[in-house]
């Protein structure tokens, strides 16, 4: 984590386009995405399209440590990415097999990618 903090704030850092040196969107704005996961408790935090922040991964860590909201609950952090938007978590589809979507406790859903697993189980039952 600390290794990356320096390059996130350095706009001139060679071929590594993260943080302030990252590519701008079509409107010329710097918008950063980041995700972090810890393997012991399967904690997960993700943010997307953050503006005015050079260390998006630090924001994702704060989301992982401090927030339980993934959708319309009050108090959701701006930029918080929930399970609904992530393939394998809130939805998954394979034209050859089928598709799945789910709802419930998004923070738990993020840990296990149940929609991906459901489609894989469908695939196994075909063989």
Automatic annotation (TrEMBL):
Any Pfam family matching the protein: Asparaginase_2
Gene3D superfamilies linked: (Glycosyl)asparaginase (3.60.20.30)
InterPro entries: Ntn_hydrolases_N, Peptidase_T2
SUPFAM superfamilies from the UniProt entry: N-terminal nucleophile aminohydrolases (Ntn hydrolases) (SSF56235)
Top-level taxon of the source organism: Eukaryota
Family per similarity comment: Belongs to the Ntn-hydrolase family.
Descriptive protein name: Uncharacterized protein
């Amino acid at each position: 984590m600390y290794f990356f903090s320096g390059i996130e704030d350095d706009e001139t850092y060679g071929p590594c386009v993260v943080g302030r040196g990252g590519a701008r969107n079509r409107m010329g704005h710097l918008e950063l995405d980041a995700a972090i996961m810890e393997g012991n408790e399967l904690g997960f935090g993700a943010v997307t399209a953050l503006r005015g922040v050079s260390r998006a991964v630090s924001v994702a860590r704060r989301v992982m440590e401090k927030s339980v909201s993934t959708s319309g609950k009050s108090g959701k952090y701006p930029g918080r990415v929930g399970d609904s938007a992530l393939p394998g978590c809130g939805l998954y589809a394979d034209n050859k097999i089928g598709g799945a979507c789910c709802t419930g406790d998004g923070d738990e859903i993020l840990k296990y990618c149940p929609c991906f697993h459901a489609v894989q189980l469908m695939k196994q039952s075909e063989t």
